[in-house]
Specification:
- It contains three helices and 22 strands.
- Strands 16, 17, 18, 19, 20, 21 and 22 form a seven-stranded antiparallel sheet that branches. A three-stranded antiparallel sheet has the order 1-10-9, with no helix packed on it.
- A hairpin with a 4-residue loop joins strand 9 and strand 10.
- It has 265 residues and is mostly beta strands.
Length: 265
């Protein structure tokens, strides 16, 4: 079962960031010694300096232990003497940018929609565009109708219009054919690269922060350059049978919620 990570939404409206308390043993110090990270978030010195003592102590410990929180805090404890008493630190707050969140616990927290079920692909005047769908979306009265808009928060994503043509619903590992006038770069294990303008591959995932898609090789023999969805000239979904034969899927309408959670291959 997929377990959602819950964050505090306290400053989300003002900063676009959410916070989460993480164990100090999970922290890591960047090689340049400037940034402390944990749980894909950043532990930083507060603007008002309120965490100065703890932040400095954590950074010193990490620096002395190769940047590893596991080595610096093997028992997940940091003892700081404040003069009159000792303070035991086991967790600190990290912050991370968030684009698409789901309210949980009666609005006291938000969960990051990290487990994407599928992406519904449309084509508009600017090219291909995708609507990401998460488990929580299938519990709503209607499916989302906002397409990923690069470097914009979710409430500023563009809406699907009646003029946008529905193309297909993409699930991870779906067989696709893509074409692009500007060559797509392929990188092989031995270091050499190749460039192609037409490719049969698998859909991997889509990055909702910049609208770029990761595709995968059929045989895993090379890595495909991440490409902007809107930059593709052709995107076609194929169904592959047990004999390896591929058949073009021509979708006429968007799949409804009753069949969305389980895909028949």
């Amino acid at each position: 079962m997929h377990k959602e990570t819950v964050f505090s939404p306290k400053h989300y409206d003002q900063t676009g960031e959410v916070t989460q308390r993480v164990a100090i043993s999970s922290l890591k110090l960047a090689k340049n010694g400037d940034q402390i990270t944990g749980a894909k978030g950043i532990y930083a010195l507060a603007p008002d300096g309120s965490n100065q003592v703890v932040y400095t102590a954590v950074k010193v410990a990490l620096t002395a232990n190769g940047g590893s929180g596991k080595q610096a805090f093997p028992e997940n404890q940091l003892v700081i003497s404040t003069g009159s008493q000792d303070m035991v630190v086991t967790k600190v707050k990290v912050t991370k940018k968030a684009t698409l969140l789901t309210p949980v616990h009666q609005g006291r927290g938000v969960a990051s929609n990290s487990h994407m079920v599928r992406v519904d692909i449309y084509r508009n005047a600017k090219g291909y565009a995708g609507v990401p769908l998460y488990p929580a979306d299938f519990k709503q009265a209607a499916l989302p109708n906002r397409v990923i808009t690069a470097r914009k928060p979710h409430d500023q994503w563009q809406l699907v219009t009646a003029n946008d043509a529905f193309i297909c619903a993409l699930y991870p590992d779906d067989s696709v054919h893509i074409e692009r006038q500007h060559p797509i770069r392929l990188k092989y294990p031995d270091g050499h690269t190749d460039e192609v303008t037409s490719l049969d591959c698998y859909f991997g995932k889509i990055n909702i922060s910049n609208n770029s898609v990761t595709f995968k090789a059929h045989d895993g023999s090379y890595v495909i350059q991440e490409v902007a969805l809107s930059s593709l000239d052709t995107l076609q979904l194929y169904q592959q049978d047990y004999l390896g034969n591929r058949h073009l899927v021509r979708s006429k309408r968007r799949a409804d919620k009753t069949s969305a959670m389980v895909k028949t291959r």
